[in-house]
Each structure stands twice: as C-alpha cells, then as structure tokens.
Amino acid sequence: MRRIFPFDSGAFQNEYYARFLHKHMKLGDFALEPDLSSPARLVELFFGSVPAYLLGRPVAEPTLDPSDFEAQSYAALINAKEGNDIDSRGSGIELQTADALNISDAVDAVILPSSFAAGATGAKLAALGIERIPYRTYDRMRPSEYTTAIHDLCLAYYVKRRILLERDI
C-alpha cells in the first residue's frame, strides 16, 4: 500500500466535502497508515461492522478525542443527511498501491451493463477468469439511476461468496 484515505481523494480535491472540513485541512491530514489493517480499524470505529459500512449506517456518535479534528470532520461527513450532494464517495475507503495490480489477481467480479457483459469487454473479463455480473439498462435513464441496482447486485455477490450473511443486510 502506498496511501489509504477514508474517502475518495478526488472528491476531496474538488471540495465536495468542504462544508464538513476546516478550510485549512489538507488531504494528507486524512491519510491512514498504509497498512491493510487500517480500513478494518476505520470501519470498526466509525461503523461498528462491515455490514453497517456497506449499508452506509455509521455509528451515531463514535468515541473520539475532541482534539482529533479530522476524525470529528469525517464523522460529520459520513453522518450527513443532506440528500444526494454527499454520496458514497464520502465513506468509500480509497486504497492506492505503489505498483500496478494484475487485474486477474486483484478482481473477482465486475458489475457492468448487460451490453458490455455480452460484448468484447465481457469476453476479456471471462478470459481473465473474472465473473461478470450484468445489469439491464434502459433508454433515457441517467447512469446515476442504476446505483441502487448495482449496490444490490454487489451485496448479493457478497452473500453468495459468504463475505456477508443475508441476515446482516
């Protein structure tokens, strides 16, 4: 691991989170230890469990040191209820690696539109041994309107792979 952030760093750089942060906070202030245990510790502290994290249900008031301003700001961000202007990028843990990853070693499945799954993209994924999980698209629908369907397919995949239990979601 090269860097780990508790949220999408591009959204931070584009000031999507500005109203939850002090104007002098920098991206590096939010960097987690570049260790694979860091995401699990973050999830435990702010969400309590992996299912709660995946369902976007943070702990209402995690126990934080009052002087830990970045943690306080992150808690405010993930607890925001202002509708669609704060999306899952605010809690999606970002992992950056120092080296390129071999996609066939790093990816088990891809959720993609059925037209891509049935075409050249799907064939390339199949050749790499990557499971394709298609979803149907409709004319005149914005890509953002598929978010719930994609999320549901992802949770169903986690249950199928026994990463999560059905009762937990």
Shape: globular
Query: How many strands in all?
Result: 4
H/E element sequence: EHHHHEHEHHEH
The whole-number mean of residue pLDDT values reads: 92
> Portion of residues in helices?
25-40%
**Count of helical segments?**
8
Alpha carbon gyration radius: 18 Å
Overall structural domain count: 2
Structural class of the secondary elements? alpha+beta
- From the N-terminal CA to the C-terminal CA, the straight-line distance is 29 Å
Q: Regions with pLDDT < 50 over 5+ consecutive residues?
A: none
Main sheet record: 2 strands, antiparallel
Strand order, largest beta sheet:
1-2
What percent of residues are in strands? 5-15%
Write a compact overview of the structure shown.
With 169 residues, the protein is an alpha+beta fold.
Topology:
Elements: E1 3-5, H1 9-13, H2 38-46, H3 50-54, H4 69-78, E2 94-96, H5 103-106, E3 109-113, H6 114-117, H7 120-127, E4 131-135, H8 147-160
Parallel strand pairs: 3-4
Antiparallel strand pairs: 1-2
